[in-house]
């Protein structure tokens, strides 16, 4: 089992790079840099490329609405170049709150946009003259939409690789189906091993039926919280995770437009998800967190004694996860390093 970790994206680059170098020596396979509404992920990824040497680096995620498809391709090729072929392009739709609320861009047609962006990226990396006429993107622009001076161009530089891996963050059935069809990897959130097949099995099967064999097997990047602890310490750690779940299930979207709430419902927590959302949107965040079931918190996390965590790793593996992108529950860099070292031994 490969081990990944999302790095701090809102602090100092130097401090994060120093921690990343230690994690690399401890056996971390891949580090993700999120992009929310702090500094951009690309700056930090470029900095990390110069401070590490063997560990994979990934965007986790770049929103599909915030860059043109060709700029996304250029950025990925540049990061792959400065990292000597260690970059993985993580893409995702994010949600209306970030895309419309922070970037001021209309949140529309995520499936069509995602498919076309991936097609265009791969054309750019192969150094083809880019010609694309899709539902959302036209390259070059037709004469009646532009100046008439546009013509197909190809990337000047020669990329390190023409097949930079692409991971799609996806939760809804149609998005997951698309990931299984066209991406190298799929990144779900709140992956529940025992209920993953109920939530996503049909969508994954449909996507794999249309998958190009040249893409190889679909990699699955699950992201559990991690704490290796004594049994009597477990409730305290679960209480740390609970507000995070409540935020997503209750607050990441309006009623009827919350992908994470819908996922909790597919897991079988319809009544609980409705209560969490009602409480959260009414401003009762602590009560919303308390309403998140223990069973759900523990199932999507790796929290407990070493033997229990090893059993859960086996469950994640059995459910199809190939990389565990953990969130070590420690207060400082030395504590996170110790957890990753312990976890490496269990994997």
UniProtKB/TrEMBL annotation:
Can you name one GO molecular function term for this protein?
oxidoreductase activity
Which Pfam families does the annotation name? Bac_luciferase (PF00296)
Could you tell me the EC number(s) of this protein? Answer: 1.-.-.-
**Keywords for this protein:** Oxidoreductase
Q: What class of enzyme is it?
A: oxidoreductase
Source species, domain of life: Bacteria
- Signal sequence, renumbered to the chain: none
| Domain (Luciferase-like) ranges | 3-322
User: What PANTHER family does the record point to?
Assistant: 5,10-METHYLENETETRAHYDROMETHANOPTERIN REDUCTASE, PTHR43244
Identification of the protein by name: LLM class F420-dependent oxidoreductase
Q: Which organism is it from?
A: Dietzia maris
